[in-house]
Design goal:
alpha+beta; two-stranded antiparallel ribbon; two-stranded antiparallel sheet; elongated
Length: about 160
């Protein structure tokens, strides 16, 4: 995971002050710390790599057939250009434009996932489209045990 030095320091400070994990940090159980950081949080975030297959599986075919020809063409275009980064407002708005405000939420809710604890420590911005809100993460991914050791060592 590519973190800036400031983000590494932010992670190190957050872990040291978090009572749920501070004993593992102080005892240098780096595997346990990295596993904890990579576990799911309760924070919902926008997915950044949604495949055409995943989008197709969300598609209610009867509603697809009922779309206007331009809307179907726009949906087909989106599927052809997957994977799609739904942290970008352009693509979330496209769902509303194609499917309408009522049906778009099927997809908007479907392109969210729980962020990892590490991703929530680093943060991002809370953004919403059509009433569906999620975290637009500053970083995506998991941290390895080796990376976590360097962070805890202050080896930036």
């Amino acid at each position: 995971m590519n973190l800036t030095n400031a983000q590494k320091l932010q992670v190190k400070n957050a872990l040291s002050s978090n009572s749920a994990i501070s004993s593992f940090v102080s005892n240098r159980q780096d595997v346990a710390v990295s596993n904890w950081c990579n576990s799911e949080s309760n924070t919902i975030s926008w997915m950044t790599n949604v495949s055409s297959r995943d989008l197709f599986e969300m598609t209610p075919i009867a509603k697809y057939i009922a779309l206007t020809v331009p809307a179907r063409s726009a949906w087909d275009l989106m599927l052809r250009h997957a994977p799609i980064d739904f942290s970008r407002v352009k693509f979330r708005n496209a769902l509303v434009d194609i499917w309408g405000t009522a049906d778009a939420n099927i997809f908007l809710n479907g392109v969210t996932e729980k962020a990892t604890i590490l991703e929530t420590i680093i943060g991002g911005s809370q953004v919403s489209t059509n009433g569906v809100g999620a975290l637009k993460r500053t970083v995506n991914g998991t941290v390895t045990q080796e990376e976590m050791s360097r962070i805890l060592n202050g080896a930036f």
